[in-house]
Write a structure and sequence with these properties.
protease; globular; single chain; Cathepsin D, subunit A, domain 1; 2 domains; 413 residues; disordered C terminus; alpha+beta
């Protein structure tokens, strides 16, 4: 009797680590070193910091032949290095992948991971990208991957799903959107508007280009659209926002108000992607002047008119990327719970810390002022004593000089 054993190919779930609620990294091993690489749907290259970058952990290709020199430019910063083919261990499998050993870094030195693994829609070298290799080696069941991102810091609940989607990762059904012809995961929205219970304002009434980018932490808008959003928040919703420069970008900081509106991206007649205030407010808290302010997850970026939906958005929506059909599937994340948070609870621990720090700084400031005044008063007293002693010394000197003159006059007479 013949028994046929058919090995089934399924999807893989790889744990991701949430780095400071900003990026998500995946482990990959080469030369007995394990590197944590940021999963970036907005780029196409795997690169790791090299020895020249003075990092505790760096990549150095052993007995490799260089393929080419490569430069990558990001929205902020760039890298330059040498591209090699390296044997990596990933998900307990051995794969030959193209990797750039980075020699020169600009504005990316503070990156908390060891490098980046790009998972864009198209790759410059289709024979060496991760998803194709996993599929060709019959490790995964389809040329697809998905991102389930938990917003708890340093948690290991987040997943990179390689292959077909796992229905336990999201709520309801995936809604698939056709992507554009670009190399990135771009789609078009029919319109973008700001809305609350009383009225709504259009941020964009025509087609709006959108990018799903796990390598970006916040929601990036063109400078023109960023200014328009600022004006809508102030003129129509009385949020008293101001633009604050942070590093290379401007961010919105607003007075606290329970009437923050929703931001809605209308993809088509069946799909609206909605960001609640709980989604786009980073935190609300007291600043050093005891002013209560809300810090928003919007930043400006000088680019073509594109909205980049970063980690803030991807924590709310599970996204699944299909390389064969060139589509993105979207559904609410299984982990999403921010809609249950009251606006007044946003950043409470931060609020308490800032309030405590501010209140503690008041008596310290008063003591410093009292001490400074006492020092000034003491110095003034010392100056007065010194001047008095100097005056007494001068008067005695004058009396001593007059006496011999008096005697000499008397003797002359």
């Amino acid at each position: 009797m013949l028994i046929f054993i058919i090995a089934s190919v399924q999807s893989l779930d790889i744990q991701l680590i949430n780095l400071q609620q900003v990026y998500y990294s995946v482990p990959i091993t080469a030369n007995n070193f394990t590197y944590n690489l940021i999963v970036d749907t907005g780029s196409d290259t795997l690169w790791i910091f090299g020895k020249q970058n003075n990092r505790r952990k760096y990549y150095e290709c052993n007995q490799c032949q260089a393929i080419m020199q490569k430069r990558l430019d990001y929205g902020l910063g760039s890298i330059y290095g040498t591209q090699f083919t390296q044997l990596f261990e990933f998900a307990n499998r051995s794969l030959n992948l193209s990797v750039v050993e980075v020699q020169i870094v600009q504005d990316l030195d503070s990156l908390i991971a060891d490098g980046i693994i790009g998972l864009s829609k198209q790759y410059p070298d289709s024979d060496a990208n991760l998803i194709d290799l996993l599929y060709n080696h019959k490790i995964i069941d389809s040329k697809q991957f998905g991102l389930l991102l938990d917003d708890q810091i340093c948690s290991v609940n987040s997943l990179l799903t390689l292959g077909k989607p796992n229905q336990s990762n999201y709520v309801g059904q995936l809604q698939y959107i056709n992507t554009t012809r670009s190399e990135l995961w771009n789609v078009y929205a029919n319109s973008v508007f700001i809305s609350n219970t009383t009225h709504q304002q259009m941020l964009e009434s025509n087609k709006q280009l959108i990018l799903f980018d796990s390598g970006t932490s916040k929601i990036m808008l063109s400078s023109k659209k960023f200014h328009s959003l600022h004006n809508i928040f102030n003129d129509d919703y009385n949020l008293n926002c101001e633009q604050v420069k942070h590093n290379y970008f401007h961010e919105l900081v607003c007075h606290f108000n329970t009437q923050f509106p929703h931001l809605i991206l209308n993809i088509n007649s069946q799909l609206n992607l909605t960001l609640l205030p709980q989604d786009y407010i980073s935190y609300c808290g007291y600043n050093y002047f005891l002013q209560y302010r809300c810090y928003l997850n919007f930043q400006n970026l000088d680019n073509d008119d594109e909205i980049i939906l970063g980690v803030v958005f991807l924590q709310k929506y599970y996204t699944h990327y299909d390389l064969q059909t060139q589509q993105v599937g979207i559904a609410q994340s299984y982990y999403y719970k921010r809609d249950k948070i009251n606006l007044t609870q946003l950043g409470n621990q931060y609020n308490y810390n800032m309030l405590y720090l501010s209140l503690m700084s008041i008596p310290i400031l008063i003591l410093f002022m009292i001490l400074s005044m006492n020092i000034i008063k003491w110095r003034q007293n010392q100056d007065q004593i010194s001047q008095s002693n100097e005056g007494n010394h001068q008067s005695r000197g004058q009396e001593q000089e007059m006496e011999p003159i008096k005697f000499s006059v008397q003797s002359a007479r």
